[in-house]
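> call design_seq(struct)
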């Protein structure tokens, strides 16, 4: 008994289809890797800029991309009446929400949406429960400016806002265009995340910003453990520390690079399977 190769158009076509599909996905992840490297380089350059009062940058809000990842000092008054929730979040593997609260900026007729931080799910479902975290209305701190999030293709949608639509309290993403339609004042086109330690070094801040988070696939970056920003920055995880300021992270470029090799390997496997299936035993 010996083996011989018998060509099959159907088998060859199918294996080539999947090989090309996986190769294209590998190329796509390589492109994402390059884009992420450029994005992180821009982020690092912005973090190097000095901290300034947000009022000095309000004239640039027509081009919000120039404000992303700037650290600014902000002072204003919370509007707890129109507070919202960013749902499906985790800190230290505990499910909960982020509190999205409008802050009316002192010396301006504009407001900004600020992520005040994380609270566990048991406090999120009742406005009365959340009132315990609505402390002094006056607020001042250094915050990090972040870009708005819009719905991606095939992603679940947030409810409509504006007009006769009811007030939307729970959100899947910080979609400032839709959020602005349900507020009685104008908001700037970026939102803020609180930096509770304004003297935090650029290197430590980058470690908090660039990581695989627990609410995404846990792929460790360069062998380092996940950074539990809540514990590292706010101390013991307890009710008196709530809400805990935290950051919505940027997935590291290394994760995309890993997918480049995974999809490339699958492309080779598809070709190998197609070849093996066309080898038959002959007389």
């Amino acid at each position: 008994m010996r083996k011989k190769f018998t060509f099959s158009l159907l088998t060859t076509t199918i294996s080539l289809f999947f090989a090309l599909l996986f190769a294209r996905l590998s190329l796509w992840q390589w492109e994402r890797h390059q884009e992420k490297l450029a994005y992180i380089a821009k982020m690092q350059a912005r973090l190097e800029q000095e901290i300034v009062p947000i009022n000095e940058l309000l004239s640039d809000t027509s081009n919000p991309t120039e404000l992303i990842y700037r650290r600014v000092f902000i002072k204003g008054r919370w509007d707890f009446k129109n507070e919202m929730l960013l749902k499906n979040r985790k800190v230290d593997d505990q499910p909960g929400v982020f509190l999205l609260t409008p802050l009316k900026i002192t010396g301006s007729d504009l407001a900004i949406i600020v992520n005040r931080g994380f609270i566990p799910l048991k406090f999120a479902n009742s406005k009365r429960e959340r009132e315990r975290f609505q402390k002094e209305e006056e607020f001042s701190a250094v915050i990090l400016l972040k870009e708005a999030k819009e719905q991606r293709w095939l992603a679940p949608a947030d409810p409509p806002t504006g007009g006769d639509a009811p007030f939307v309290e729970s959100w899947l993403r910080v979609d400032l265009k839709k959020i602005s339609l349900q507020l009685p004042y104008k908001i700037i086109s970026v939102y803020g995340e609180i930096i509770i330690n304004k003297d935090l070094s650029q290197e430590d801040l980058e470690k908090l910003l660039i990581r695989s988070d627990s609410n995404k696939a846990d792929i460790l970056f360069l062998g380092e453990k996940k950074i539990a920003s809540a514990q590292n920055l706010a101390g013991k995880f307890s009710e008196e520390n709530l809400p805990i300021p935290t950051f919505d992270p940027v997935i590291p470029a290394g994760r995309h690079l890993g997918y480049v090799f995974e999809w490339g390997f699958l492309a080779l496997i598809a070709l190998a399977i197609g070849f093996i299936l066309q080898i038959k035993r002959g007389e």
